[in-house]
Amino acid sequence: MATPPNAAAAATTGQTVSNWVSHHRRLVVAVAAAITVTTAGALYYSHASHQQQIQQAKQSKQAKKDAKAAGGAKGKGKGSASTPSTTTTTAEGGEKQQASSPSDDALNLTQTDIEVMDKQASLARASPGTNKRTDELTLDAMQTRAQTALTLKARGNKLYASKQYQDAIAYYTKAIECEEQAVFYSNRAACYTNLNQLDKVVEDCSAALGLDSQYVKALNRRATAREQLGSDENLYLALCDFTAAAILDGFQNQSTSNSVERVMKRLASEKATDMLATREPRLPSATFVTAYLTAFRPRAPPALPANPQQGDRTLQLAFEALDAKDFTHAFSLFHEAIEQGISTDDARSEALNMRATFKFIMSDAAGALADLDEATRVKPANAQSWVKKASVHMELGKPDEAMADFDKALEIDPENADVFYHRGQVFFITGEFDRAIQEYRKSSELDPSYIFCHIQLAVAQYKAGSTQKALVLFDRLVEKNPRNPDVYNYYGELLLDQQRFQDAVDAFDKAIEYAKDQTPRNVLPMVNKALAIFQHRQDFATAERICREAVTIDPQCDVGVATLAQLLLQQNKVHEAVDMFSKAAEMARTEPELVNALTYENATRAQLAFLRDYPEQAARLGLARTA
Asked: 117: which of 210, 356, 458, 552 lies 20 to 30 Å off by Cα?
């Protein structure tokens, strides 16, 4: 069924928000960095050269002692300190072979060896300067431990480069045992990535971030692993990591934006699918239902037969509830009437038509089509049922069948103004504005009293680029309908799009004034006024206050809730914004609406996680949460 006028207004309202949201979304858009392993720092001293220095010092001291014992003979001991050979001789055969590398020796260090280094280092820190000799030896131990760790890491890097990941892991692990450094954990995580051991990737990256919370490479690597793990929780955590990496990295890498968009889309799409499959269908706000129902010219309900059945009486109650705008009971009563049995084909067809209408509004397109098929079978001459059937086919992505339905309705009633109006709505939604204009004109010629034909004609003219024609049409509509809130609301939207802010606010004020007596009250003019004030003066406080009032009047106004959420987000009232986006997701009718709401909710939650985990960085960037 074609989009009702107020629903079209809601779409326009959503578009006006996007200009300023796109800038703010930078704060929640993450940037993916390439996942590579590099040597994180030069190795200044090798383990081997350090051992040589120690050995040379010992030999030199021993030579001096020998010379003194021998009476200080000239030349004695000169050159006696020789460099240890880098080769060894086997016990048998005298065959020389290369000695094991220093990193291989270090790989064989026991935990006891490492603990001795730690104890010596602790002693030096506990009593510095108490004994020069002890301090020198302890400093040697500390340097040996750190340099051993670097040697092990360098060997691990070489093995990684040659794709010997398991061997590289052994060296990185021993390096960590010698001295914990974030880069050691991150490099080992890279090995686990290539071995597809994703849980270990997450574990090691988390350890690296525990040592250096701003380690962007570890954030990106953990985010990638979590994305590959793929559950809802892991996807959300991946989004948080990508977001943090992006903000810390100053948004310097465009690939990060691509990563976060990918993760947000996947997370929102999968969650939306689950939610739609499990939640019960429900009616949207009364304002939306009213807008849809008034998109058709009113018709008198079928009269009761002389001897009414129970189903006939229930049907009459359903129409009475509909007239009272008690839509929940109306839908229930239409269903009960059909189940109880209705005595005439005309009345049964009308009941099926109305139940289908409510099912369509509740996003049950398949159920609506089944009822309309039955309605047109029971009474093929009901043109309105064919029009509604056309809209359902459009919703199901079957435009050819939709156009055939419109043609069938015109065969039944060539002068039916609703057929032309709703076919015009289809062309409007698909962007065929010239064809929409033709349909609206024909509909208004057949029934000039229907105001929405004239409104949509003016809007279509504007969309087609005929701005002046649209303005003239609205001026005429205002003159002929000086107290119609819909005329002023649509006119205000056009003026707002033209950046005639004060004129737009004036139009919205009139729409608000004349809508006060409506039941249910249409609060879209209030939401539009809030946006106009924000765009014109950046007056967040006033815009927020007006939007809150609108949501208080109509808590089910999805556009109002979504707009309020974005106004809160723009003011860094992140926690409250999350709640509003969550509410918008609960109210979403269709899958695209739900995906959009969930995307904003997840992005905002990711920003909230950044504020929690990086308060100092957030404060420096002006992202500190204000509420």
From this structure: 210
Q: What is the pLDDT of residues 289-319, one digit of tens each?
A: 999 999 999 999 999 999 999 999 999 999 9
> Is 571:581 a contact under the CB 8 Å cutoff?
no
Distances (CA, A) of 479 to 436, 515, 525, 544: 24, 18, 19, 32
Do residues 187 and 156 make contact, with C-beta atoms less than 8 angstroms apart? yes
Instruction: Determine what percent of the chain is predicted with pLDDT higher than 90.
Output: 68
* Max CA pair span of the chain: 142
State the pTM of this model. 0.74
The residue extents of the domains of the chain are 101-250+252-276, 298-411
Superfamily holding 298-411: Tetratricopeptide repeat domain (1.25.40.10)
Per DSSP, the chain holds a count of helices (H) and strands (E) of 30, 2
Sign (positive or negative) of CA dihedral 100, 104, 108, 109 = positive
Residues 411-440: tens digit of each pLDDT: 999 999 999 999 999 999 999 999 999 999
Report the distance separating Cα 54 and Cα 563, nearest Å.
71
Dihedrals phi, psi of 496, to nearest 5 degrees: -65, -40
Question: How many angstroms separate the Cα of 216 from the Cα of each of 35, 525, 602, 615?
Answer: 11, 46, 21, 16
Residue 22 burial (CB < 10 Å; 0-12/13-18/19+)?
A: exposed
- In angstroms, the CA 68 to CA 314 distance is 122
Report the 10 Å Cβ neighbour count for 488: 26
Rounded distance between C-alpha atoms, residue 331 and residue 368, angstroms: 13
Strand pairing partners for 90? none
